[in-house]
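quick one: flavin-adenine dinucleotide bound model?
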Amino acid sequence: MYPAPFRYHRPANLKEAILMLSTLGETAKPLAGGQTLIPILKLRMDEPTDLVDIGRLPDLRFAKNEGGWVEIGALSPHGWVARSDIAKAIPIVKDCAGGIADVQVRSRGTIGGSVSAADPNCDWPALLNTLDAEIRCAGPEGDRTIAIGDFITEAYTTALQPGELVTSIRFRTPPPGSGGAYIAYKKAAAAFPVVSVGVQMTVAAGNVCQDVRIALGGSGPKPRRAVQAEAELRGKTLNSQAWQHAADAVAAVAEPTDDVRGSSEFKRQLLRGLLLKAGDTATRRCANATIEGSHVYA
Amino acid sequence: MPDAINKVTIDVTVNGRKFRRQVEPRMLLVEFIREELGLTGTHIGCDTSYCGACTVQLDGAPVKSCTMFAVQADGCEVLTVEGLEKDGQLHPLQKSFSEHHGLQCGFCTPGMLMASHALLTDNPHPDRHAIKKAIAGNVCRCTGYQNIIKAVEAVAAGAKE
Ligand SMILES: Cc1cc2nc3c(=O)[nH]c(=O)nc-3n(C[C@H](O)[C@H](O)[C@H](O)COP(=O)(O)OP(=O)(O)OC[C@H]3O[C@@H](n4cnc5c(N)ncnc54)[C@H](O)[C@@H]3O)c2cc1C
Ligand code: FES
Ligand code: FES
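yep, here:
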């Protein structure tokens, strides 16, 4: 399968990339890892006239934890992030990055490409909602920082303006006593998640939930916060009753569609189970337990 | 569609040999390897990024060559299945696949070899779970995977510390 012909450009730096994209106009597209874009081009679902290869732009592959913020460069591949010190220190990041697709896709696909593609089932957008992340962008009008909830506007659509690029993603360094877990249910490695759940929480003495954020993937046109489920847990003792109430709230807020991956009812049941599993792992990680956990395969 | 597409000159080192070629930007890396260089060991299975038969290593990392353009490999080193043998001798991993019946039709084998070779380079003593994870992106319609895993395990067991 061949994409329609296109012109290929490889800018030397970010400034040049932005200039190229804004000069070439809306029929030009950035190419990062290509793990979403190339399959789309091969199916001729899109026929850009120009591809601007940002894949090798210097300085956009990094992961750092400084001044209370974790920041990950847009061109950091999933596999690279999974092996980074950030993933070691913050296991929910490893859950997500190390569980995306297969090793080959993780070699090439980038976090910046994943949020820009804004696929409702993709892992990074759901995780970044869990962590209340911000997306940093650079464009012809200058730089700006957009909350993840505003960045993804609907399925496959973002707030990016023509010529604008994602440069990094950042979120607050999780405080001591906090822990998180992200679990996606997939039918195979090289398949998008059916649904996913991220839980990031802080547990105080006496097993009381001090703070919690819960986000769901594959449960609507964009990742959604489960605000009511959070309310069922916040300030409460974390017993099985509290978690059951949270699971009910997750199932109630999710709006998964019936599709080849399963019926909406099946997905709601999955979400309940994933919440309980992610909640259990997150709670134990709050107490510094080491738990390797990632995607649940069918 | 743009009126005129200029070919792009790329320099790629494949299995240690340098190649300079002019390619259309839309040429996939797998087509470049098979059609331009005549290295047909790398297979096209699904052509939709799912089967892993087209797996090669790009600067040491396993990638699906059907999901990359040749222009993206400009200046890089590519290792294909043809690059595994040395001086007419099969690589220990290839021997092990043969000894453990890690293949039947052989269609998936180049991809399985390149994915497991990348694993062993990175981690010479992987456990079963790590082996399964490393070949999770490679589909085999014949063997049921067990003998492929055994073949990789055998090489890992024999590897020097
Ligand atoms: C077989 C297979 C299985 C997969 N399984 C999963 C999975 O389990 N979970 C999962 O989450 N994902 C999965 N994916 C998707 C994968 O994670 C992609 O890598 C990712 O979605 C896109 O990143 P990329 O760097 O490859 O982006 P590209 O494909 O290069 O680009 C994607 C889109 O974003 C734009 N873009 C890219 N970078 C930027 C930027 N910095 N600023 C602005 N726009 C940009 C491009 O123009 C394009 O429109 C899978 C993909 C494949 C092929
Ligand atoms: S041919 Fe590339 S993944 Fe199947
Ligand atoms: S040996 Fe036939 S597909 Fe694997």
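Residues B 44-47, 49-54, 64, 66 surround FE2/S2 (inorganic) cluster (ligand 2) (CB under 6 Å).
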